[in-house]
Design a protein that fits this description.
The complex is a heterodimer of chains A (266) and B (268).
Chain A: H1 13-36, H2 41-44, H3 47-60, H4 68-99, H5 108-123, H6 126-137, H7 141-165, H8 169-177, H9 182-213, H10 224-233, H11 237-265
Chain B: H1 16-39, H2 49-62, H3 70-101, H4 110-125, H5 128-139, H6 143-167, H7 172-179, H8 184-218, H9 226-235, H10 239-267
Helix pairs in contact in B: 3-6, 3-8, 3-10, 4-6, 5-6, 6-8, 7-8, 8-10, 9-10
Classes of the chains: A mainly alpha (266), B mainly alpha (268).
Chain lengths: 266, 268
């Protein structure tokens, strides 16, 4: 019987050198990161931390239910912020999506520009936007709504443009050949093809925005984050526990509903 | 003149019932929008001249960026990247048992599988900034709290993505190894790992991208990184320093995203 192991394929020396180079680079990166990060271990493993644990953890897991009503109020505000912001973005992202779709916007320069605008918008964290709006128009839910709306346009516009790029262009051509004008092509040729996916993405974005808007209050842009900051500053950890519980329950329910709806749409 | 046989021409492709239902859904969504915009006081009338003047004044104050501040920004930005790197690495290692336990083709025990799934879902629902608030309360101000928050947050995402990849693998190599007497560890090492390794690296890189972006704001609550000086300069009203921070962060994040995207494109 032939029990010989198949010969190993010879690797090119260049690739071996490259792989070693990558390996050394990675190791250097990690050594740099771990060696230069300043973590005060002495303080972290001090008796104060242990005392903190004893004080905080049991309270965190025994939420203060008398606080529930207030938390629910703020959670509703969070939902309103997320919904208003996502709704605005879902509508406003449509023109951006068409602008960034290469099969609709044939001008390569304008098309790339549209893509860049959306990319730039997406990279900018919503909490920074919220900060700018809080400074500009004062604290409150409106600043949060604007931050959510503007940030969401970036992602929705990109997803929309991908949907538009994947449509069946034969329909559009056929309508053009029949002498339909631009508006007719838009409403009868393009929109029916993209609406279900647009809606699915908008709902998905709402899901993300609920999570995002829970933190906006930390800088004063409304919602449950406001309450979180107050409770944690006053070291009322049973209240923080309640807030966490409500956030987990609400976000899970919304994720579940949104997934169920999206499955039915597409 | 003879009547056509089928005198009922359908006026629309969509049935009347579906139309009514669609309209009701639309009305409900729109109604909820109006209600929520009322509750958040974000009506269209707020976009008046005063609004644009305020925003414009804010934007004008941001310019020109104060480039003399770059040194401080750079240092904190490197700290932010280090935080993201360390957190992603630790989360990548920690997530291995979780993603195996959350894959229904590896774990046959229903209870264990569902419990892991639920645990991971809960981890993913808590925003990282809120985790950071709690950890700052526990461990005090500093990067340690931020790194912990990022680890927990990325653990949830990574384990979910990778367990889904594991569920989609080819099961035949696993069976073959089991049939020839391999134990569970051998099955995982020789049949599962080679199949998911490229995706594993790709997802870890993706989570690294997310973590870089997330760690920008962790400093707001005292969890280290660039958010700390951002908040500081904001409260000192030195907006030109703020815009330096924003511009440099933005450029670095875009570069990291670009490199990571290229690497991921080559991996999978």
């Amino acid at each position: 019987m032939n029990t010989q192991v198949p010969p190993k394929t010879n690797r090119k020396p260049m690739i071996i050198v490259r792989n070693i180079g990558i390996g050394i680079g990675l190791i250097a990166l990690y050594v740099w990161a771990f060696a230069t990060i300043e973590i005060p271990w002495a303080r972290i493993f001090s008796e104060k931390t242990i005392a903190n644990f004893d004080r905080v953890i049991p309270k965190l897991f025994s939420p203060d239910f008398t606080f529930a009503e207030k938390v629910l109020d703020y959670m509703m505000e969070t939902l309103f912020i997320a919904f208003t912001g996502s709704f605005m973005a879902a509508i406003l992202a449509v023109p951006f999506g068409f602008f960034a779709a290469s099969n609709i916007n044939r001008n390569p320069f304008l098309n790339t520009m549209g893509k860049w605008i959306l990319n730039a918008d997406r990279t900018f964290p919503e909490i920074l936007l919220a900060l700018i709006f809080v400074v500009a128009i004062g604290p409150g839910a409106f600043a949060g709504v604007l931050a959510i709306a503007i940030h969401s346009i970036g992602m929705l516009g990109k997803l929309y443009s991908e949907v538009i790029e994947s449509i069946d262009m034969h329909v559009v051509e056929a309508m053009e050949a029949n002498g339909a004008n631009k508006i007719q092509i838009f409403f009868y040729g393009i929109m029916p093809q993209v609406i279900p996916e647009f809606m699915s993405y908008a709902i998905y974005r709402f899901e993300i925005d609920v999570r995002a808007s829970t933190i906006l209050g930390i800088i004063g842009a409304g919602g449950i984050g406001t309450l979180l900051v107050i409770s944690s500053r006053n070291r009322n950890w049973d209240e923080v526990g309640m807030i966490l519980l409500v956030i987990i329950i609400f976000v899970s329910i919304i994720d579940y509903i949104s997934t169920a709806i999206r499955k039915r749409i597409v | 003149m003879t009547k056509p046989l089928n005198s009922e021409v359908p006026t629309s492709l969509v049935s009347r019932k579906a139309k009514v239902r669609m309209n009701i859904i639309m009305l409900v969504v729109l109604g909820f929008y109006l209600f929520s915009s009322f509750m958040t006081q974000s009506s269209i009338t707020r976009f008046d001249s005063a609004f644009f003047i305020n925003v414009w004044e804010m934007v004008v104050q941001l310019f020109p960026p104060n480039w003399g501040y770059t040194g401080v920004v750079w240092e904190k930005l490197l700290e932010t990247i280090k935080m993201a790197l360390i957190a992603t690495t630790i989360a990548g290692i920690l997530c291995i048992p979780f993603c195996l336990l959350a894959a229904n083709n590896i774990v046959q025990n229903k209870v264990l599988y569902n419990a892991t799934k639920m645990f991971l879902n809960i981890m993913r629902t808590i925003p990282e900034l809120i985790l950071a608030v709690v950890f700052v309360g526990l461990f005090g101000i500093g990067v340690f709290a931020g790194i912990l928050a990022l680890i927990i947050f990325s653990l949830g995402i990574l384990a979910k993505l990778i367990s889904e990849t594991i569920e989609a693998i080819d099961m035949n190599p696993l069976e073959a190894i089991r049939a020839s007497g391999g134990n569970t560890l051998q099955v995982i090492w020789y049949a599962v790992v080679p199949q998911v390794l490229p995706q594993f690296v790709s997802f870890t890189l993706y989570v690294f991208e997310i973590n870089v972006r997330a760690s920008v704001v962790l400093g707001f609550v005292g969890a280290g990184g660039i958010g700390l000086i951002l908040r500081q300069q904001m409260s000192f009203l030195s907006y030109q320093n703020v815009s330096t921070i924003i511009v440099i962060t933005f450029v670095v994040v875009v570069i990291i995203d670009y490199i990571s995207n290229k690497l991921r494109g080559r991996l999978v």
